[in-house]
Amino acid sequence: MSWGRRRGTPLAGRRTVRRRRPRPVAWLAIGAGKVLLGVAPVVGVGVWLATAPVFELKAEIGVETGARVTEEWVRERLAGLVGRNLPMLSLERATARLEHEWVREAKLVKRLPNELDVEIVEHEPAAVFESGKRAWIIDRDGRAIVECERAADLCESTLVRVSIQPGLLGERAGTSPARHRSVSGPASRDVPGEALARTLKRSVTVADEVKSFGWGREVFAVGVLSDDDYLLERGGRPATVLVRGSDLTAKGSVFQLLQAAIREHSDPEVVDLRFRDRIVLSAGAPGADLEAAAGVSAGGDPS
Do residues 105 and 183 touch, judged by C-beta distance below 8 A? Predict the structure, then answer.
């Protein structure tokens, strides 16, 4: 028997078997089946998370807050969320319910299966800004928290009081400071108010810095005379001290050393520390002459 094969002639007794290739539809069906087998458990878990009663938010919401925003207020604002599915709850929308003039930040944390914790961070009052017949509680950024008519207790407290020369207000810096951005909204776009807030921030910084000196601890009011000139009102004598914010540390230290001698020899009403090479003492109360001096010093050293 010959095992050879001539060209074009099949070997004797050999059968040719052709394998059929699966059609594209079959491949798609097999792939879809695998996908469904992998996705089904995930879908099942998702449905369970979204519908199981165990995830319904409890009424006892944990609240941590300060003095101005009460726990009762927070729970009242979030009462409409009780019973909702916690995993599906939008914290962004829940936070939007906590808009309040004293709320600087609201931190919400989910505690599965059905608890929600809320921490309220309040604005910290730093001073009282007075402008004409209006007054605001401001923070260390110089931004308005609330008008005094809604926080009379703070306005009558020992917070330092800040005022600004009328010439610095108006178109240049507005008449009321900008507010902070809300817990769910954008920051203020009041450009003059932003400029005023920056000026107030510097004045609050000056009020803080003078407290590092013994004489500065009695300062209860700061008046802004120009971009860098400040009038400090004290409870003792001298009753008024004029300083420049840019050299407050150096001049304040000199005045601290000479204060006893100054009071012993002249007991002045006003001490002007804004000069480069001298300290000017005055026995009279500050008046129009100080405003004139402030105008001169805005363009250079007083003389």
Answer: yes
Q: CB neighbours (10 Å) of residue 131? A: 17
- Packing angle, helices 248-265 and 191-210, rounded to 10: 50
Q: What are the tokens at 190?
A: 């009041």
30 vs 50: CA distance, rounded Å: 30
Question: Do residues 150 and 245 both lie within one domain?
Answer: yes
User: What is the distance between the alpha carbons of residues 171 and 159, in angstroms, rounded to a whole number?
Assistant: 28
Quote the pLDDT of residue 299: 45
CB 188 within 8 A of CB 178: yes
Coil, strand, or helix at residue 35? helix
What average pLDDT does this structure show over 141-165? 93
Return the H-helix or E-strand segment holding 43. helix 24-51
Q: What is the pLDDT of residue 1?
A: 46
233 and 194 inside one domain: yes
| Residue 157 lies in domain | 127-297
Domain for residue 24, yes or no?
A: no
Assess whether 197 and 171 both reside in one domain.
yes
Task: State which amino acid sits at residue 287.
Answer: G
**Mean pLDDT over all residues of the chain?**
82
Give the pLDDT band of residue 190 (cuts 50, 70, 90): low
Choose between 265 and 224: higher pLDDT: 224
Stated pTM of the model: 0.75
Residue ending a domain, choose from 78, 107, 122: 122
Query: What CA–CA distance (Å, rounded) separates 216 from 273?
Result: 13
Whether omega for the bond prior to residue 87 falls within 30 degrees of 0, making it cis, is no
Final residue in a domain of this structure, among 71, 93, 122: 122
